[in-house]
Amino acid sequence: MGTFGTGPFSSDGALDFLDELAERPLQQRAEALRHMLGYVLANRDLLWREYFPDQVVAAAALVATTLPGGEHLQHRLMQVSDESSAVILPEPAPDLATSALEALHFVAGPGGPWHQGWTTEIDQAEARQTIDGLTAILQAAAHS
């Protein structure tokens, strides 16, 4: 049984995604994120087969770590794995904010698949807080 938590980097799927990204050279990571987010948006019907909501949330959170307001996410990213320091992006990625926000809304908008399956009210509230926080950071960057 895998780990699945309410934070953006709190699941096995999110950590696997981060590990895959960490294997790429630093200069290729933003492009890999751009490709992944574009793939999600162009292939919404492949959710649950080719990608999962926790991976999309982790990708959006990784974009948010580079933006104003995302500093706490950088700290969380550093906590999740010894290897996670290698997952950082080389520079801010505000150009990815719009696609990250759109992909996040797809998987974690009201009633979206990210919100399905939380078994307690506390987990439901924490999951909503995670998405609300990411949305606020990404919206600020997308609208500036």
TrEMBL record:
Record Pfam families: DUF4259
The protein's name in its UniProt record: DUF4259 domain-containing protein
Organism listed in the record: Micromonospora parastrephiae
